[in-house]
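Hey, I'm writing a tutorial for new members on how sequence and structure tokens pair up, and I'd like a real worked example in the thread rather than a made-up one. If someone can provide the structure for the chain below, I'll link this post from the tutorial.
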Amino acid sequence: HRPRNPGKGSGTVRWIGSLPQKGGLYYGVELDKPRGKNDGNYNGTQYFTSAPKRGLFCKLDSLTSMKDGEVLSADDETSVGDDSGSDRARFGS
């Protein structure tokens, strides 16, 4: 599966968990293109590794899943900045 987040393009889920000072479950995504906010580092902690500007942390309700080329729509973008996993995602229109 490939997640998607409006305006960000496609990527791969690399980490799932909680972030300090943030409520709820976050997904760390390595984007295919440099449209992210980080390299998998959030407030000095490396949660996953990606090239600069290819990392993004967001909540599940900000993602959609791509299966067999089909894109499912997602709601708002709640991104912050993400380590494990391998599900593919799409971020963007």
